Amino acid sequence: MIQEMVNGSIAVLTKPSAQTFEQHERDNLVWALIYAVIASVINGILSVITWPLEAGSVRAQLEAQGLPPDVIETTLAQQGNIIGLVLGGIFGTIIGSLVVWGLIYLLGRAFGGTGSFGELAWGISLFSSPLAVAQTIANAIPSIGGLISLALTLYGVYLTYLAIQSGMNLPSKKALYIAIILAVIGIIFVCFTAGLLAAALLILSGGFAP
Prior knowledge:
Blueprint: H1 2-14, H2 18-23, H3 29-64, H4 69-79, H5 82-110, H6 117-139, H7 145-168, H8 172-204
Helix pairs in contact: 1-6, 3-4, 3-5, 3-6, 5-6, 6-7, 7-8
């Protein structure tokens, strides 16, 4: 089954079209999750490997924000903990994947889609799992890593649009509407998360102290 999914990933990534997704479509939620978890484990290992290259810049950023030394050391230790990264990644991937796939499925049904949840999950996992690994590698590349990661994100949005057409049996226009809604939700979520993180850093650094 893994080999079948790898072959499907290569196909949809190199020859992206709704027809390609249809050719490699399967109704298998369990293996879609397994594929996503495998990517998460690989990402955890890669993060630990690349962490020494990033630790210096992260420390400098935390020091610039005025965080106490003990908070900085705790944060750095957590970032380099392979067990925490892998286990956290596994549970986060399972929950996050089910939430995202469920949201896309509900939107698809609202627009008249007739596909199954397993088919949609399988199609999305074929590209989202390898792209997640590729983004982890890209983020470790100095200078241009951010641009590569952004390009991979945009490509992922396009592939999501195609996967929705195939997995939910929807015409291209309705799939596009769903992709736009998802992009807006994603932007709002990122902004909200960034705001919470900024507030937490201010609190830790005593930024709200009188």
